[in-house]
Amino acid sequence: MTREPNPSEQRWTPAQLAPDSPAYSEPPETPTAPYAPGPQPHIEERRSLWKRASGALVALGLLILNFGAKFKALLLLLPKLKLLTTSASMLVSIAAYTLIWGLKFAIGFVLLLLIHEMGHVFQLRREGIPASAPMFIPFLGAVIMSRSLGEDAAAEARVGLAGPIVGSLGALVPLALYHATGEELFQALAFTGFFLNLFNLLPVLPLDGGRAMAALTPWMWIVGYAALVVLTFTFPNPIMLLILLFGGMETWRRFKARKSPEGARFHTVRPRTRVAIAAVYIGLAALLAVGMDATFLERGIGDA
Q1: Which of 169, 183, 199, 203 is the right S-S partner for 220, CB 3.0 to 4.6 Å?
Q2: Average pLDDT over residues 103-107
Q3: Is 171 a domain residue?
C-alpha cells in the first residue's frame, strides 16, 4: 500500500546533502500503514495443492496403464520373434545373471527356472491346451504363452501347481549333488530352487499360488495382495513392484468377473477336488520351507 505525500511535509532527498556534510543524516524511515488482516490463503493453498497432487496421481495411473498394455503386447509378440527362441533367451539370461553371481551359479539358476516353467508346459498340454516353450527375460524370470490356463478353476489350479511341483523336484538335483560333493555352490542352488518355488506359491495373481486360489476361494487373492503390499514396502525391489502392478490389474478384473454367469461356472469346483488342491498347496509349501531351512547357507560379508 502506498501513502499520498502531504504538501506540508518537508521533502528530502539524499542528493541535497553530501555524505561528508555535518548536516547529513540517514533519511527518515517511511512510516508504513498498519497491517490489516485480510482473507487467509491457507484453504485456497491446500485446495490448489490437492488439485496438483490429484492431477499427478491421475497422470501416473494413466502412465502405468499405458506401460502395462505395451508390456503385455510385447509378451504376446515374443513367441513370433525368431531371434528370441528359448535357447537364445536362456543364453541372454545366463549372461545377465553372470554379471551378478558368476557363470556357474547363473547356469544353475536358469536351469532351475527352465524346469519350473516346463512343469506348466507339460500340464497345459495334458489339459489339451497348446503352450509355447519358455521365454526367458533377464531379472524377471521366464514366461510361457497359451490361449488359456484351463477350462475351469480346477484346471487352472493344476496348471499353476505343476510349476512349483516340478520345480521342487528339480531343486532336489543340486541338493543331491551337494550331499555327494560337499560343494557349497550346489547347496546355494538347492536353497534358491526351494525359495523360488515357495515364493511362487504366494496366493497372488499372476503367481502360481494365485492360480491355485482360483479353485479354493477368490477372496484369498485380496488377502495375498495385501500381504504382498506389506512385503514390498518391507523389502522393496523392482520385481515385487511389477507383480503389484500386473497382479493388481488382474486381481481387480477377475474379482469383478467372478459373479458373472461365465465366472460362476468357471469357479464351480467339486468339494473333493477343492480339498485335494488345498492339501497339495499346503503340503508343498511346508516341504519347501523345510528344504529352505535344511539348505540355508549363512555367509558373512567377508566371505568369498
Answers
A1: 203
A2: 96
A3: yes
Q: Is residue 29 part of a domain?
A: no
Q: How far apart are CA 28 and CA 35, in angstroms?
A: 20
In angstroms, the CA 134 to CA 143 distance is 6
Confidence (pLDDT) at 95: 96
Given the C-alpha cell 560337499, which residue does it identify? Answer: 182
- Tell whether 41 is covered by a domain: no
Q: Does the residue 123 lie in any domain? A: yes
Q: What is the pLDDT of residues 175-216, one digit of tens each?
A: 999 999 999 999 999 999 999 999 999 999 999 999 999 999
Residue 135 pairs in a beta bridge with: 143
How far, in Å, CA of 217 to CA of 109, rounded? Answer: 33
Q: Domains in the chain: how many in total?
A: 1
Q: What is the residue range of 197's domain?
A: 81-295
Place of cell 520345480: 167
What residue type is assigned to position 230 of the chain? V
SS (H, E, C) 109-145: HHHHHHHHHHHHHHHHHHCCCCECCCEEECCCEEECC
Closest of 161, 121, 157 to residue 267, by C-alpha: 157
